[in-house]
Amino acid sequence: MSKEKPLKQDFEGQRPGEEVLFVFRRHLIAMRKGFYLLLIPFALTAIPPLIWQDNLELFLLPIGGFVLGLLLFFYHYIMWYFTVYIVTSQRIRQVTQRGFFGKDVVELRLSKIQNISYNIPGFTGEIMGFGTIVIQTFVGDLVIKNVEHPDKTFHKLQNAVADAVEQQGDYEESIEQTAS
Questions:
Q1: How many CB atoms lie within 10 A of CB 47?
Q2: What confidence tens digit (pLDDT) does each residue in 107-132 have?
Q3: Read out DSSP for 140-169?
Q4: 8, CA 20 to 30 Å: which among 20, 42, 44, 134?
Q5: Nearest alpha carbon to residue 26 among 109, 150, 155, 159
Q6: SS3 101
Q7: d(CA 70, CA 73)
């Protein structure tokens, strides 16, 4: 197995002896709604000055539309930036930002993962470099959409799961030896 070099990062809820292997987030394409909300108010408020060009006060309207668009974009940027996936030597931790003050945290032990697969959705996914990763366990699936470079992330996850299963096997073997 390839041993990934642990990162020198800490996070809230990290256990003693647990090493952060890598951190990833969704692709920038996941923020496309934020980009639309930036452009639409600006484009709509730019129409009146184009129609009534003799009224100079209307030229302030696109500035207001742009500021409104920036506020809406900033909200989506915060949701994207603070939604992260932390892969440690023991588990995967999904931290999803919900609004400005709420967050959801989901954890999955690496040793409980049965299967990992990924999908690149056609031409756009191939060109832009995003896709979906599905992590299957006994209790259900963790579907991560719009992952940047899903193939690379998939291989890193496979290595992390293999290492965790190997460590658990070594741990169980040592318990059996001490019991006998």
A1: 13
A2: 898 988 999 999 999 898 999 999 99
A3: -EEEEEEEESHHHHHHHHHHHHHHHHHHHH
A4: 134
A5: 150
A6: coil
A7: 5
For the chain, the first-to-last Cα distance in angstroms comes to: 30
Place of tokens 């990290």: 14
pTM (predicted TM-score): 0.77
Give the number of other CB atoms < 10 A from CB of residue 12. Answer: 7
Query: What type of residue is 109?
Result: R
Long-range contacts made by residues 164-170, C-beta under 8 angstroms, separation at least 24?
164/89, 164/90, 164/109, 164/110, 164/111, 165/110, 165/111, 166/1, 167/89, 168/111
Report the pLDDT value the prediction gives residue 1, as an integer from 0 to 100: 43
- Report yes or no: 142 and 108 within 8 Å, Cβ to Cβ: yes
Contacts made by residues 28-36, CB under 8 angstroms, sequence distance 24+: 28/80, 28/148, 29/128, 29/130, 29/146, 30/80, 30/145, 30/146, 31/76, 31/77, 31/80, 33/76, 34/72, 34/73, 34/75, 34/76, 34/77, 34/80, 35/73
How far apart are the C-alpha atoms of 22 and 84, rounded to whole Å?
11
